[in-house]
Design goal:
168 residues, alpha+beta, Alpha-Beta Plaits, four-stranded antiparallel beta sheet, two-stranded antiparallel ribbon
Length: 168
Amino acid sequence: MRNFIFIGVLGGFTTFSTYALESLNLLRDGEIKLALMNLLISNMCGLLLVSAGFMLSKFIIYTIKEDTDMKLPDAGQLLRIFVGETDRHKSKPLYEAIVLKARELNLAGATVFRGIMGYGATSRIHSITLLRLSEDLPVMIEIVDTEDNINKILPFLDETVKEGLITL
């Protein structure tokens, strides 16, 4: 993630420096109207494109209906899985893999909670402090559905949760 931020910052810097250099060259050549138009149009287009991208992402996330509707059960069961933030399954964070599997199995709901302090089997305290923002913080995944549907995800959890706790 840090690499993407670094690339984004460098990309923004090079784009801005090129646009600023073009404006300065126009000013130096006495093309004041063109320089002002370059500044105005570049900023307006940039804001317009950022707004369009934001609206498009909201449209994609919130309005495109998936082909599966999840039904909320009348009587439900709560499954809690406690893992560490740095636990992984293949190339994904373990908590993400669990939620995606629950969705794939069409379970009624899943939520991930990130703890600010906790300890597990090793009794080592994990917490947010001023000096280190996060270091393998505790994560709890809650999944709610009927007992029959909860039983569908248990084999996956047995396979993927190596260190952690699973409660019903």
